[in-house]
Amino acid sequence: MTSPSGSSTLSKPAPRFASIGSPYFGIMLAIMAVVLILSNIGASKGVVLGPIITDGGFFLFPLAYILGDVMSEVYGFKVARKAIVTSFALSVFASLCYWVIIALPGFDDEYGTAKQAAIEGALGPVPQIVLASLLAFLAGQTINSWILVKMKARTGEKTLWARLMGSSVVGEFVDTLIFCSIAASVIGITDFGMFANYVLVGFLYKTGVEFLFVPVTVMVVGWIKKREPSYGVVAA
Length: 236
Description:
The protein is mainly alpha-helical and 236 residues long. The chain contains 8 helices and 4 strands; from the N terminus they run E-H-E-E-H-H-H-H-H-H-H-E. The protein has helices at 23-42, 61-75, 77-103, 110-123, 126-155, 160-183, 192-212, 214-227, and strands at residues 16-17, 46-49, 52-55, 234-235. The strands form 2 sheets. A two-stranded antiparallel sheet has the order 1-4. A two-stranded antiparallel sheet has the order 2-3. Strand 2 and strand 3 form a beta hairpin. The two termini are 21 Å apart. It comes from Paenarthrobacter aromaticivorans.
């Protein structure tokens, strides 16, 4: 094409993506949903590791973001957003199931009463955790996916590592701040010092794990791109 001054310019090619017709997207979506549901259960338990304050879902949750990165890079923002909404719809469904399980009448002997108390203690706080995760993950993962795809529009297939790291920093911070603000009271955090520790440790840990796994994420993305028959056919 020719610019108004008469000089020749080249238009930037649209970023390449794949359609969701192959099995890979469904597998990743299923794993993401399971990870989120298990993370919501684990997050109801406060965990103290020396000076570090976190929750029982800390070792699972970063996997959901890594999967989100892969889906955003391979399938684009709209598809990644559908995966986020679907995963949390399933998390809400799981939470409703917990509520029904707790409400159902149980045995009234000593064992049954103890079992009911244990179930209420383990699953009772989960609805608030799900709310925290819903708001946090929808905001954080959406921002993460949007930034990654916008960066891809500028760089094309180059510097995937920079897209993964740059989007993760912003997305994880938003996610961690929102989640901790809502979930802190459920797991027993009662003062600002503990809260600040919870937010800082959560953000640094999640971001650190994503950074650590960037080489693996890059390899997985490359592997799926090569095996997705439609990759490069779908544009943003």
